Every structure is written in C-alpha cells, then in structure tokens.
Amino acid sequence: MLVASDKLKGAELMGIDQSVGSIHDLLFDDESWVIRHLVVDTGHWLPGRQILLPPPKIDASDWPAGTAKVPLTSQQVKDSPPVESDQPVSRQMEIQLYQHYDVPYYWGPAGATLAGSGYSPMPLGVGLMPVDPNIADQPERTHLRSVNEVVGYYIQGTDEEVGHVEGMLIDDTNWSIQQLIVDTRNWWPGKQVLLDREHVAGISWADATVSVSLSRDSIRSASEYDPTST
C-alpha cells in the first residue's frame, strides 16, 4: 500500500499496554531510498523523549485513521537506547537499537532474513561514510536522512527549477520510497505531480536541492497527485 509521508507522520502507535507515542519523522537511506527508522515522539507519558523504531516492528496499521499497532510494552519503549536528535545515527547506535527490539539487521548476512518480508537488506559496508585512517576514533556513519528535512527542498530539472518537494509516497510493505510529491505552484499554480524516485539524479544537502533527470516539459506530463488516493 502506498502511503503519503504526511499521513504517516502523526500516526499514533498503540503498544501492548498503552499508546507509546506518535510518528514524528522518518529516516531514509539516501542510497537505497528505504525508510530505516521511525522517529517516535513518546508524548505525555515520557515527556521530552524521542526514540527510533525499526519499521518492521509495525504489526498492523490503519493509516487513514492515523493509528498503527506495535507488539511492544511501554517499558520496552522506555528502555530503548537513547537517541540525540541533533546527532547523526551511527552504526553502533543502530546495532543497539536492533538488538533491543530483536529485529535482524538490514545490512550484512543477518539482513538477508528480512528479504522474504520485502524489507530490503543492505550489504555489509554499504552506507558507511569513508574512513580517514589519519583520524582516530571516527564513528561509522550511515546515509540516513530526515524526510522532514527534505520536504521543502527545491526540485531542479534538467533545464530549470520545477518546484519543491511536498512529500513522498512510501510502500508500507517494504518501506521503500516510490515517488516524490512535487508542488509546482511557482510556475504551474494548483498542481502537484508525482515523480518516480528513479528520476532523482542527486540530492545536494548544502543547497537544499533535489536534482531530477527531467525537463519542465516532461514534468508537465507527469501524473497528478490526488491526496485522497493515499
């Protein structure tokens, strides 16, 4: 099922004994375009706390109703490894999280056990930042990016700017990002179109820009986004 990112954000996660929070953000791998972590705000029962939750822990969902179930107790969530929202997610942190939630890693041989569920594993070593042997104590860093961050980025076509990222369509069976929702209001008022992720040529984090391999004319013929369909 394809779900718009704005429909996922804000969804309440119902645990075994109580609500454990709501989805605040989604972290995706900018190489594989797969959601790797849900950023969960624990709300009033655990004030000032956010946790990372592996998407395979979603047991059942009713996204139109804004709810999903997770087979977790509030104590399991409370005991989740702490996450600093302003710090990059290291591989060591991911290992601790996946061990805590008893979920196979999405990278390396263990990640292959997730292939049957459609959740894409990552080969060992892919997604790690290059290591400089001249610098000691470097953390292993993954290519994880925030959906909240990318929403609002400019879309640069092959000839000129064509709008900005309004959201993403995500397949909730394997948590892959399938399409970008693009708002073209600056030159084509009232239109939002869908661009397949295969057309993304690159992302410049410094310039807050997503480059695509399509011209403005090509984007005119792209499928129009209907919010009621997701």
TrEMBL record:
Residues 63-89 are annotated as: Disordered. It comes from the Bacteria. This is PRC-barrel domain-containing protein. It comes from Rhodopirellula halodulae.
